[in-house]
Structure formats: structure tokens, C-alpha cells
Amino acid sequence: MGKGRLEAFSDGVIAIIITIMVLELKVPDGHSFASLVPLAPVLLSYVLSFVYVGIYWNNHHHMLSTIHRVSGGVLWANLHLLFWLSLFPFATAWMGENHFAASPTAVYGVVLLMAALAYWILQQTLVAVDGPGSALARAIGSDWKGKLSPVLYLSGIALTFWQAWAAQLTYALGALLWLIPDRRIESVVKG
């Protein structure tokens, strides 16, 4: 089976996720910049989630550029990832509307953790289909970012019940870690 439909479906779902997140943003009651202040948690939650969804879309695109075919297992692993990504709008809205309270911030961390695990499962399933000598397998290498991310998310979840702001910083650090361009796949595909 070719990968075109998988890519198109994933792109569509991710576009809908971003659309749902932006539709959750409410217009402020006033016309001054001061009227934006109460919305700061909602806006900050949206920005963080937009960055994360963008990171997943970007990395998903790069990962799929290395493969030549997909299997039924790949389709299910991809759906598993999309399921967790589809919970971003809910977790984002709950966290922002409740001004980063502990429980919504912990749930946000669980969604981050599960999306990271689902991405890893998809990555491993793709390697199994294309083989251990595939371009993707070579590009992944030691995958220190992929190993560090779940640790950050687990730390953030734990920190939530101590200081929710510390969890937010941990989640932001995870996003910053992935914002630094990852040239592993590009270097393997070009080379």
C-alpha cells in the first residue's frame, strides 16, 4: 500500500485539530489591550498547543518521507497517534480556561506523554515495515530527544501537584527541545 492516503488523511486531521483549537478562542469583552489580560492563560495554552501540533505535523511529514510503503499496523499506529493529537483541543481549553490549575495541567501532560508514546510506536512500526537498514532506522539513531521527551512530560505531570507553573515550564521546555531543527532525517534522505 502506498503512503499517499496516509499522509493526506493525517494532514487533514491535524488541520482540523488546529482549527478546533483556534475556534475555542473567545473574543475579549472590551476593546482595549487590558481586556486581553484575563485571556492570557487561554492564549498561552493555545500557543503552546499550536507549537506542539506543528512539531508533530513537521516530524510526521519528515518521518513519512523516508518510507516507501505502509502496512495495516502502520495505519493503526498512525490512528493511535492521531487519537492523542485530537485530544489537544480539549486539554488545551480545559487548562487555559482554568488558569493552569493542577488537574487540567496534569491532564495536558498526560496527553503530551501519550502522544509522544504513540509517535514512538508509529516510528517503530514504520521501521519494522521498511527494515532495520531503512533510512528511517538510520535517521533515528540514538533518538535522545525521543527518550528525553517522555521524561519531561512525566516530570511535568508530577510537578503539577507541587507547582503548576513549574509543569508549564517543563512542557514549554519540551516544545523548545523539538523546535530546534532536527536534521537527522534530512541528512539521511539527502545522503
Describe the structure.
The protein is mainly α. 76% of the residues lie in helices and 0% in strands. The chain contains 9 helices and no strands. The protein has helices at residues 4-23, 40-64, 72-86, 88-97, 102-130, 135-140, 144-160, 164-179, 184-190.
Brief digest:
It contains nine helices and no strands. It has helices at residues 4-23, 40-64, 72-86, 88-97, 102-130, 135-140, 144-160, 164-179, 184-190.
Question: Which terms summarize this structure?
Answer:
mainly alpha, 191 residues
Total strands: the figure is: 0
Estimated structural class = mainly alpha
Strand content: under 5%
Mean pLDDT: 93
Q: What is the radius of gyration computed over CA atoms, rounded to a whole number of angstroms?
A: 18 Å
The count of helical stretches stands at: 9
The end-to-end span amounts to: 26 Å
Question: How many domains is the backbone divided into?
Answer: 1
Low-pLDDT regions? none
Sheet with most strands: none
Envelope shape? globular
- SSE series: HHHHHHHHH
By oligomeric state, this entry counts as single chain
Helix content: over 70%
Catalytic activity: K(+)(in) = K(+)(out)
InterPro entries: TMEM175-like
Main location: membrane
GO molecular function: potassium channel activity; proton channel activity
